[in-house]
Amino acid sequence: MTARIIDGKAIAAELRGKVANEVRRLSTQHGLTPGLAVVLAGNNPASQSYVGSKAKVTVETGMRSFDHRLPETVDRAELLALVNKLNADPAVHGILVQLPLPSPLDAQEVLLAIDPAKDVDGFHPVNAGRLAVGMPALVPCTPLGCIMLAKTVQPSLAGLDAVVIGRSNIVGKPLLQLLLAENATVTVTHSRTRDLAAVCRRADLLFAAIGRPEMVRGDWIKPGATVIDVGINRVPAATAGKTRLVGDVAFAEASQVAGAITPVPGGVGPMTIACLMVNTVRAACALAGLPAPAV
Ligand code: NAP
Questions:
Q1: Are strands 233-236 and 243-246 parallel, antiparallel or unpaired?
Q2: Using only C-alpha atoms, what is the Rg of the chain?
Q3: What does the pLDDT read at residue 48?
Q4: Catalytic residue positions?
Q5: From its phi and psi, is residue 266 left (phi > 0), alpha (psi between -120 and 50) or beta?
Q6: Residue 236's pLDDT is what?
Q7: What percentage of the chain exceeds 70 in pLDDT?
Q8: Ligand 1, residues 147, 167, 187, 191: which to mutate, most atoms within 8 A of Cβ?
Q9: What local confidence, expressed as pLDDT, does residue 209 receive?
Q10: Which of 98, 230, 272, 277 has the most ligand 1 atoms within 8 A of CB, as the residue to mutate?
Q11: For ligand 1, atom 40, which residue shows the shortest CA distance?
């Protein structure tokens, strides 16, 4: 079998188009322009690149982008004061503090300071709790994108056996909640799971969020399964001195067995930013007392 490739780039572009339509509608019908504030402390090159992409897409979808760059040496009080200012700013509907923060800043403390209604990363415990009990919540962008990708293959996930590798607060745990909400039967695995390959072989839907290059092999996959690869790992390329990106799944092997699979790059990655835009529009509507948008 040769798997269908789930084109995350194209699906994300379509989603961004829907967001842009909603933004236009909110502007013409309600005079509301959603705004996203992104806070970057320090000079981490990967973070700088992520923040740049987020700001670009925010503007492209018609929203306001507020870019806050702070020095590596920014102190706790200054950062918290900025978050509080953004919490109070009516033009800001979403706040994202880019992680990791330079030490000794405490990411947990900063994330807790964000107003849960503006927490477009969905990392605040209030949003995690609301998601867990089935209340409307701002949901972390990467797992939200994973579910959307899986549903392009199987519109209903009800009754399917789903296996998630990884139990982080930003991917594995919210994926568990989202999959349960979709009525899948979910197993969450981690570094202490026994015979992980055998557990994975039961999965109709396999989500890999591990951070280990190509750990999931072709013979871990049930024939015909849908495989969503969250991993982004930089490894040495064939050309000396160059690097390339690979996922947590050995793509060449897995695509011979799976029914559908996301590539890396071009799978989950583009969906994460598109879902950030979705969350910003959702937050803006909720803050303005408007019905949830059509995205
Ligand atoms: P994380 O916080 O480091 O969590 C990794 C998880 O993998 C942990 O639960 C860990 O288990 C588990 N794990 C590690 N080694 C394992 C093994 N040998 N067998 C089974 N499980 C193992 O990572 P994360 O933040 O969730 O990110 C995971 C990957 O997704 C990374 O490659 C990251 O770059 C990528 N990512 C991509 C996007 C995107 O937009 N595409 C967004 C976020 C993350 P324990 O809990 O037992 O330690």
A1: antiparallel
A2: 19
A3: 95
A4: 54, 98, 121
A5: left
A6: 96
A7: 100
A8: 191
A9: 98
A10: 230
A11: 269
SS3 annotation, 58-124 = HHHCCCEEEEEEECCCCCHHHHHHHHHHHHHCCCCCEEEECCCCCCCCCHHHHHHHCCHHHCCCCCC
Contacts 24+ apart (CB under 8 A), 183-186: 183/157, 183/158, 183/159, 184/157, 184/158, 184/159, 184/160, 185/159, 185/160, 185/161, 186/162
Judge contact between 227 and 254, C-beta under 8 A: yes
What would the pLDDT profile of 10-42 be if each residue is shown by its tens digit?
A: 999 999 999 999 999 999 999 999 999 999 999
- Residues 50-66 as b or e (16 or more Cβ within 10 Å = b): bbeebbebbeebbbbbb
Joined together, the tokens standing for residue 156 give 């209903």
Pick the closest to residue 40 from 81, 101, 83 (CA basis): 101
Torsion of CA 46, 265, 244, 39, to 10 degrees: 0
Contact 275, 14 (CB under 8 A): no
What is the C-alpha to C-alpha distance for residues 8 and 270, in angstroms, rounded to an integer? 6
pLDDT at residue number 173: 98
Q: Which residues of the chain fall below pLDDT 50? A: none
**214: phi > 0 → left, psi -120 to 50 → alpha, else beta; which?**
left
pTM for the model: 0.97
CA of 31 to the centre of ligand 1 (A): 41
Instruction: Determine if ligand 1 sits within 6 Å of the CB of residue 230.
Output: yes
Among protein residues, the one with the nearest Cα to ligand 1's atom 43 is 142
Pair 138, 116: CB distance under 8 Å: yes
Going by C-alpha positions, the residue among 185, 142, 184, 191 that lies closest to residue 165 is 191
User: Residue 223, CB half-sphere, CA atoms under 13 Å: how many?
Assistant: 1
Residue nearest to atom 42 of ligand 1 (CA): 142
